Amino acid sequence: MALETIAANHCFGGEQLRFSHPSEVLDCTMTVSVYLPPQAVSGPVPVLYWLSGLTCTDDNFVTKAGAQRYAAEHGIALVASDTSPRGDGVPDDPEAAYDFGLGAGFYVNATQSPWSRHYRMYDYVLDELPHVIASISALDTQRASISGHSMGGHGAITLALNNPNRYRSISAFAPISSPTRCPWGEKALGQYLGSDRNLWQRHDSAHLIASVTQQVPLLVDQGDADNFLEEQLKPELLKAAAADSDYPMQHRLQPGYDHSYFFIASFIGEHLAFHAQHLRD
Fold first, then answer.
1. Dist. CA 160–CA 11, nearest whole Å
2. CA dist 223 to 39, 132, 228, 256, Å?
3. Where in the chain are the domains?
4. Which member of 82, 226, 271, 275 is catalytic?
5. Active-site pick, 21, 207, 259, 275
6. Which residues face 120 on adjacent strands?
7. How far apart are the C-alpha atoms of 87 and 275, rounded to whole Å?
8. 259 included as an active-site residue
9. Residue 52 catalytic?
């Protein structure tokens, strides 16, 4: 699974790289973006995985969030994955809707036909992607944290809560807090995983946070002007579950901010500083 370099740009003293690679898990060719901070020339650096939201690719975070400046300050590599399998033969929503199919893998392993052949983003992010990027000697994949936005915030929280030994910290911007109780999640989980809602629970942040026994530090930012706030994101469910279980979550409601990358760019520096605290040796 060799990485093929697509692009390389000098950035804040480091290198912004983009690769393609064949994915055995997803049965297609994938792209991944990797930022190596300047400290990487002196030895392996820790990794922050970024999971983007609906309609995005690996490129959105790289070009819009402004995260490289802070990653360079803290000596953290940024690894941004795509949001779904891609390519010829990968099925899409029959109606080409934005919230399912291409660009909307929801970071689960699909069990239903025709999605199960390709849509296995949970295994891709958890296992295959770290294995693939381990070929970059400048990365210390044993020191890793995870973050994401919207659908990717859901993915970051659920992956880490299900696998607490793999990630030292979690952060999220406007995550889908309870996909079992919102239209985006019900559509995606129902088609990827089938009609048994009990099988959806391990992909629901509010459900997981109330039941985990090993707690990973968690920072969540949510804009109060987000047009998806009430119908899709439902942060009150995550906050209530964390309070009931005494989970160490810092949840911040940011006045005036919406769902866009302007919101992410405004607070990404604080998220990198949060992760840096937990990624130190």
1. 29
2. 33, 35, 10, 6
3. 4-279
4. 226
5. 259
6. 109
7. 34
8. yes
9. no
What average pLDDT does this structure show over 24-50? Answer: 98
Residue 281 has a pLDDT of 72
pLDDT of amino acid 2: 86
Q: Specify the DSSP element, H or E, that contains 6.
A: strand 4-11
3-state secondary structure 80-121: EECCCCCCCCCCCCCCCCCCCECCECCCCECCCCCHHHCCEH
Summary mean pLDDT of the chain: 97
Mean pLDDT, residues 165-181 = 98
What secondary structure does DSSP assign to 202-255, as a single string? GG-HHHHHTT-SS---EEEEEETT-TTIIIII-HHHHHHHHHHHT--EEEEEET
Pick the catalytic residue from 23, 52, 81, 150.
Answer: 150
Distance CA 76, CA 280 (A): 10
Q: How far is CA 141 from the centre of its chain?
A: 16
Please tell me the predicted confidence (pLDDT) of residue 1: 57
Single-letter code of the amino acid located at 182: C
Q: What is the pLDDT of residues 76-129, one digit of tens each?
A: 999 999 999 999 999 999 999 999 999 999 999 999 999 999 999 999 999 999
Read off φ and ψ for residue 8, nearest 5 degrees.
Answer: -150, 125
Query: What CATH code is assigned to 4-279?
Result: 3.40.50.1820
| Helix/strand/coil for 169 | coil
pLDDT digits (tens, 9 = 90+) for 95-106: 999 999 999 999
Q: What is the pLDDT of residues 135-169, one digit of tens each?
A: 999 999 999 999 999 999 999 999 999 999 999 99
* Residue 266 falls in the annotated catalytic set: no
